[in-house]
């Protein structure tokens, strides 16, 4: 049960830690100064949301997100939010592809070569269906989390940062709500696709609490580090590179690889949510559906990584507040069903 719970935990983290998050751009967009309390609230809200979504998915034995979405928002709003999820998964996967291009550009390779380099393995991983995604996450996400924490903690020690020096300044606490809401739709899409694979309720607790604690801790350390280089962030497409500018080239190379992995795992989660949604209508193996979906995204990748995040992420965060509210209220309104 613990191993299975960890499997879902890595699926959740892989959905969250994408180009926007791992690069620092998404965190800085919502948090920044005076956000310690905001990150704590996010951790709590995220843990509850993961539990409710995964629990509904488990009870429905769902193979795509539509039954879960209908349970959360009701029949009348399902069509609206179904469209939003499709649009969200599509556009954010485009952001991941653009992020891969930006990462390869940092090493003076072609932007389009970076996009091709992510599309090919994305198609290949679906040759093994959903099990391919789960196996991939369980192998590479511990490396990603460990590497990211290593760099952030090393930076904090070298800069002699005091994580709690501004404990009394927490005016940005409302940012927790749109930031959590931003990540609700991909969670519904991905966790809704695996409900039939969950065997025990204990797996849900392990996945929810584990992912909340891991992401909350990384977010707090990461945000504290970014505050120290706030003046440099405007100069970098990817803020994480501003932290790395004084490190040896080998460290820069290693973290760039980890950043690309983060981009890849979230792109895989986005494609998974999309193709499982239409799997019943579009007959064919998952890898073929993934290939068609990814090639449809190619024209949009020229918009640019930071531009997409700047305008799309806050908009989605606000639109998803209703879904977040419905998820948080669900245990109270359905306390006999989810006990």
Structural shape: globular
How would a textbook summarize the main sheet?
none
Kindly state the number of beta strands: 0
Task: State the CATH architecture.
Answer: Orthogonal Bundle
Backbone CA Rg: 19 Å
CATH superfamily: Hydantoin permease
Strand content: under 5%
Helix-strand pattern? HHHHHHHHHHHHHHHHH
Average predicted local confidence, pLDDT: 82
End-to-end distance: 19 Å
Protein name: Membrane protein YkvI
Transmembrane segments: 38-58, 79-103, 109-127, 139-157, 177-195, 204-222, 251-274, 286-309, 315-333
Organism: Pontibacillus salipaludis
Keywords: Membrane, Transmembrane, Transmembrane helix
Structure description:
The chain crosses the membrane at residues 38-58, 79-103, 109-127, 139-157, 177-195, 204-222, 251-274, 286-309, 315-333. It comes from Pontibacillus salipaludis. InterPro entries: YkvI-like. This protein has 339 residues and is mainly alpha-helical. The chain has one domain: Hydantoin permease. Helices cover 75% and strands 0% of the residues. It contains 17 helices and no strands. It has helices spanning 2-16, 19-22, 25-30, 36-60, 66-73, 75-105, 111-125, 129-158, 176-182, 184-191, 201-228, 230-233, 240-243, 249-277, 286-297, 305-319, 321-333. It is globular, with a radius of gyration of 19 Å.
Q: Any key phrases for this structure?
A:
mainly alpha; globular; 17 helices
């Amino acid at each position: 049960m613990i191993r299975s719970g960890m499997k879902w935990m890595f699926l959740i983290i892989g959905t969250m830690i994408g180009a926007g998050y791992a690069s620092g751009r998404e965190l800085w967009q919502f948090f920044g100064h005076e956000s310690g309390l905001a990150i704590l609230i996010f951790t709590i809200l995220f843990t509850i949301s993961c539990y409710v979504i995964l629990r509904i998915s488990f009870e429905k034995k769902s193979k795509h997100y539509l039954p879960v979405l209908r349970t959360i928002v009701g029949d009348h709003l399902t069509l609206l939010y179904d469209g939003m999820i499709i649009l969200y998964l599509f556009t954010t996967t485009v952001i991941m592809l653009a992020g891969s291009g930006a990462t390869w550009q940092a090493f003076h390779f072609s932007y389009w070569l970076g996009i091709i380099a992510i599309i090919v393995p994305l198609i290949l991983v679906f040759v093994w269906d959903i099990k391919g995604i789960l196996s991939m996450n369980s192998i590479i996400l511990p490396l990603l989390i460990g590497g990211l924490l290593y760099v952030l903690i090393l930076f904090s020690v070298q800069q002699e940062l005091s994580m709690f020096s501004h404990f009394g300044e927490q005016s940005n606490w409302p940012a927790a709500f749109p930031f959590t809401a931003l990540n609700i739709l991909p969670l519904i899409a991905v966790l809704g696709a695996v409900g039939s694979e969950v065997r025990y309720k204990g797996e849900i607790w392990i996945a929810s609490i584990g992912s909340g604690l891991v992401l909350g801790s990384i977010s707090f350390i990461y945000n504290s580090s970014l505050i120290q280089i706030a003046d440099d962030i405007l100069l970098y497409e990817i803020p994480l590179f501003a932290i790395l500018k004084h490190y040896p080239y080998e460290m820069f190379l290693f973290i760039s690889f980890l950043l690309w992995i983060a981009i890849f795992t979230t792109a895989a989660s986005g494609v998974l949510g999309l193709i499982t949604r239409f799997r019943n209508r579009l007959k064919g193996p998952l890898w073929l559906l993934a290939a068609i979906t990814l090639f449809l995204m190619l024209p949009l990748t020229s918009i640019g990584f930071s531009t997409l995040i700047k305008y799309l992420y806050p908009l989605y965060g606000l639109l998803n507040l209703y879904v977040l509210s419905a998820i948080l209220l669900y245990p109270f309104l359905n306390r006999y069903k989810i006990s």
